[in-house]
Amino acid sequence: MPSADDQLSRVFSALADPIRRDIVARLTDGDATVSDLGASYEISLQAVSKHLKVLEDAGLVTRTRDAQRRPVHLEAEVFDLMTKWIERYRQQAEERYRRLDDVLAGMSDANPQKIEGAS
């Protein structure tokens, strides 16, 4: 059983919240400060900072210092981790459905009347 501390679990857990998903979507347009991001929500800047902390702990964002600003940057390579995990199971599911299609096609070829009558 995978640990809840592994990065994939943290990433999916972080993205379970709609505000955090929206923050990630906004950061795909470019870096932004907490104030920039907070202007879009009816929550306090402190709450936005807490959401960013969760995203930061999951490795989805980093904060840097640029003079007086602390822009938040999206770490897009984390999406590769998610994509690889999803793609692996998508391929396995597709292979299973292809095998089922082959079995059904074989049954149809062997006894076409019985299969036609079932539908």
Concise account of the structure shown:
The protein has 6 helices and 2 strands. Strand 1 (61-63) and strand 2 (72-74) form a beta hairpin. It is mainly α and 119 residues long.
For the largest sheet, list the strands in their spatial order: 1-2
Main sheet properties:
2 strands, antiparallel
**Radius of gyration, CA atoms, in whole angstroms:** 23 Å
Number of strands: 2
Element-by-element helix/strand order = HHHHEEHH
Describe the protein in words:
64% of the residues lie in helices and 5% in strands. It is built from six helices and two strands, in the order H-H-H-H-E-E-H-H. It has 119 residues and is mainly alpha-helical. A hairpin with an 8-residue loop joins strand 1 and strand 2. It is elongated and about 75 Å long. A two-stranded antiparallel ribbon has the order 1-2.
Supply database-style keywords:
2 strands; elongated; two-stranded antiparallel sheet; 119 residues; single chain
